[in-house]
Amino acid sequence: MTTIGFIGSGHIGSQLARLAVAQGYDVVLSNSRGPETLGDLVAELGPHARAATPAEAAEAADLAVVTIPLKAIGTVPAEPLAGKVVIDTNNYYPQRDGQIEELDKETTTTAEMLQRQLPDSKVVKAFNHIYAADLTTQGVPAGTPDRRALAVFGDDPEAVATVGRLIDSFGFDALEVTPLSEGWRIQRDTPGYGPRLTRDGLRDALAKAKRYRDM
Fold this sequence. Notes:
It is a single chain. With about 220 residues, the chain is α/β, with parallel strands linked by helices. The protein has nine helices and eight strands. β7, α8 and β8 form a beta-alpha-beta unit. The mean pLDDT is about 95.
């Protein structure tokens, strides 16, 4: 894996791009407003970064990151992402995304919605429960005491392990969980959403998570 493609380059996307470039990856950035709006970020990141359209970023990616408002999930290009691992960082915010009935009824999750949009991709849920600023300030080498952990959910064990290794290279322990449908355990307002937790603490937080209807 050498190139990470970003469908969305906002707060989380730009921070992950910084981490990726620092680890030697090439990054291809995109957003809904056009490559020309990403000039400053590309200049900051240097020669390992370029801007493109979402379809071009998806095509170039060995691994992709979808980090856009949930209401725009239908715009994610499926064909160029077929067969690839795709990280979903999204959270559901009704005030931003509008009401989505199946999420309100908790019959699905955001990551499962993306998997439905990308039927031939391997969708993995990660990076949705850490504040953007913490991504580039809280990472530490493996083996550091009290290292922060980040959860990664997916149906494909190999894809989950791939993203787990990426998380480790970014300076965090990975807590790998299957299946993808369990990703609700780290959605907004759950115990693991936001705080800095070790692997054991994060595991406990996931176990204590409740559906919104049970809160």
